[in-house]
Amino acid sequence: MSIGTFTIRALDPLKDAELLHRWVTDPKAAFWMMQDAKLQDVEREYMRIAAHEHHHAYLGLHDGEPAFLMESYDPRYVELVGLYEPEPGDVGMHFLVAPTDRPIHGFTKAVITAVMDELFADPRTRRVVVEPDVGNKAVHALNEAVGFVPVREIDKPEKRALLSFCTRDQFLAARGVAV
After folding, report:
1. If you ran DSSP here, which 8-state letter would residue 5 be given?
2. Which of 7, 31, 32 is nearest to 21 (CA)?
3. Which of 62, 70, 134, 143 gets the most CB atoms within 10 Å of its CB?
């Protein structure tokens, strides 16, 4: 059974702010650390990202409807500066699935797979880097399901994080594609 079609477009910080505000303040988005954010805080944060040369935000669509948020960043300049030794072709990633009253079995795994497909569509991407909160066991399991390998815990200013990497070959192997 197909879950549907995923597409990804650049995020419009002003046009998409109300939607994002609902998502990031939802109790299910606690690890996004914006629970108390006001609409203006969300606008300001995504305007900052839009203006940043090394950080990008995207809106993911499921069958044409907004369904997830994706961010990519260059860890040499954003998020992980001084916390690990970046390699050429490293790309950092965050994703957030929109809260829903009608969950679809396998949807979140399909989203992270679409995100990884998007990142690896760029031939310069050699490895995807993530740094989720150590307490976010659900995302650790999802990350491992698409090929991420945990490396070590690191201390970021806002959280204790689990640094994990996924190469193109690890991602393809996790999908059952011969490499």
Report:
1. -
2. 32
3. 143
